[in-house]
Design brief:
- About 45% of the residues are buried.
- With about 425 residues, the protein is an alpha/beta fold.
- A hairpin with a 6-residue loop joins strand 3 and strand 4.
- Helices cover about 40% and strands about 15% of the residues.
């Protein structure tokens, strides 16, 4: 039986981000495909307290999931600081479980050294890494957005990165890039869920022939019934996801203000909280919610198990992110429910939504353009119907797991030859 270690930078029970959710879904899909799989999620004091005596903590009741407590981490070099404390425990885990495959989903908290530790401990283990964002390329939380004016960044270099972080010497950015590329050189194959993200890593310097394109899959859900969405007097827009400066929540609320001033009859339901955000951002978003109530309803955090039903209760989903999103799971969730999506025309979002076919696309960080797209949905019921029929359903996570296993199998002869 093939053994697979799936490693991510957190656990969806502690931090339900898209990467963690997808990694965990794929972990379960590997098990359904007949693999013996173990999930390793790294965490820190934000989500869990340290338990002296071991780097590992249990989570769940099935015995096939474990947490690596990573409280000492260098975010600039994406490296473990406490190598003497962490590395022996990781080595012991690898020697005990002896995976045939290590599937890495992030370097954050796990450390850029992780693939090298795997290769040194288990020379014949195949290592595949899914690229979910731009953390190795960009020190600005992997956003590839300039630190001033929220300007999109079209390419990283030590000079450009130093311009964003004047307090960090230019030569440190040179060292950072060489450090990360050196440690990543032992990875057998990379996967990008979007062509846009793949191209960014090719431009950064990863070998193009080693980056495969495999779209993310979704858990299989019952097909949406036509009767699930009752007829409504006014169209309802839905926002799903955390509220932060990069997801475009403020852009949505500013667009809603414009439509309210025009006297349009509509509703916006904002599902999501604002964890770990600055006081300034929280104050600004609170003010916008107060100015747009009751048309805009702040509904707070939601459970993932509820998202299908929540999406069925809206006519159109809005995802106005202002950074280069890779392959947002929430767009797939909406499309799986035949829900049209209004989203920014950049990054992987532009690959998932074709303007006028299964949704509408708008320039990022442009409340006026977003308001115009929302106005079209409000005023044209026929357009809503056309976009709904044009929905593109994602592949199932089980199909995605089989695609990964086929790719990983093809890496075996390449490693033997090397």
């Amino acid at each position: 039986m093939t053994r697979v270690l799936v490693a991510a930078h957190n656990h969806p029970a502690l931090h339900p981000g898209g990467t963690e959710i997808f990694a965990h879904d794929l972990f379960r899909a590997y098990q359904r495909a007949g693999c013996e799989a173990l999930f390793l999620g790294a965490t820190n004091q934000i989500h869990r307290q340290e338990r002296p005596g071991t780097s590992f903590q249990s989570i769940g009741s099935s015995g096939d999931e474990v947490l690596l407590w990573s409280g000492h981490f260098d975010r600039f070099f994406m490296s473990q600081i406490d190598l003497y404390g962490v590395v022996p425990d990781i080595v012991e885990l690898l020697q005990d479980f002896r995976p045939d495959i290590v599937h890495l989903h992030h370097l954050l908290l796990l450390g850029a050294e992780f693939p090298h530790i795997v290769r040194r401990t288990l020379p014949d283990c195949r290592i595949v890494m899914t690229l979910h964002d731009y953390y190795p390329i960009c020190h600005h939380d992997g956003l590839m957005v300039r630190t001033k004016e929220k300007e999109l960044c079209y390419g990283a270099s030590p000079d450009r990165c130093h311009a964003c972080f004047k307090d960090i010497p230019l030569d440190k950015f040179v060292l950072r890039e060489r450090h990360l590329k050196s440690l990543l050189s032992v990875v057998d194959g990379y996967v990008a869920p979007s062509a846009f993200l793949r191209q960014r890593y090719v431009e950064w310097g990863l070998p193009e022939e080693r980056i495969s394109l495999i779209p993310n899959g979704q858990p299989e859900r019952p097909a949406p019934a036509q009767t699930d969405a009752p007829a409504r007097r006014k169209p309802v827009f839905g926002y799903f996801g955390n509220l932060n400066p990069w997801k475009g929540g403020t852009v949505l609320l500013e667009a809603a203000k414009r439509l309210i001033a025009e006297g349009l009859d509509f509703e916006v339901r904002v599902h999501g909280a604002a964890p770990f955000q600055s006081e300034h951002f929280v104050e600004s978003i609170d003010k916008l919610f107060a100015e747009t109530a009751p048309v805009v309803q702040r509904r707070g955090a939601y459970r993932r198990d509820d998202i299908a039903g929540l999406i069925r209760s809206v006519d159109c989903m809005v995802m106005p992110s202002i950074w280069w999103e890779n392959a947002p799971l929430v767009i797939q969730e909406a499309q799986g429910q035949n829900c049209p999506v209004i989203t920014s025309n950049i990054g992987g979002m532009a690959e998932m939504i074709e303007n006028g076919v299964n949704g509408l696309t708008v320039p990022p960080n442009d409340p006026t353009a977003l308001a115009a797209a929302m106005r079209r949905i409000v005023e044209d019921p026929d357009l809503r119907e056309i976009l709904s029929h044009g929905a593109r359903h994602p592949e199932t996570i089980d199909t995605t797991a089989l695609r990964y296993l086929a790719l990983i199998e093809s890496l075996r002869p390449a490693r033997v030859a090397a």
